Amino acid sequence: MPSYISRTWTQLNKFRRSHP
């Protein structure tokens, strides 16, 4: 998995955790 995808995925997960 490319680094930029991993980075975007991490940001998405953080956003979803902050906004359930």
Which key terms come to mind for this protein?
rod-shaped; 20 residues; mainly alpha
Mean pLDDT: 91
The portion of residues forming beta strands comes to under 5%
Number of helices: 1
Based on DSSP secondary structure assignment, what is the total number of beta strands?
A: 0
* Weakly predicted, low-confidence segments: none
* Helix fraction by DSSP (H/I, runs of at least 4): over 70%
Largest sheet: none
Rg, rounded, reads 9 Å
Task: State the distance separating the first and last CA atoms.
Answer: 26 Å
Overall shape: rod-shaped
User: Could you give the order of the helices and strands?
Assistant: H
Determine the structural class based on helices, strands and strand pairing. Answer: mainly alpha
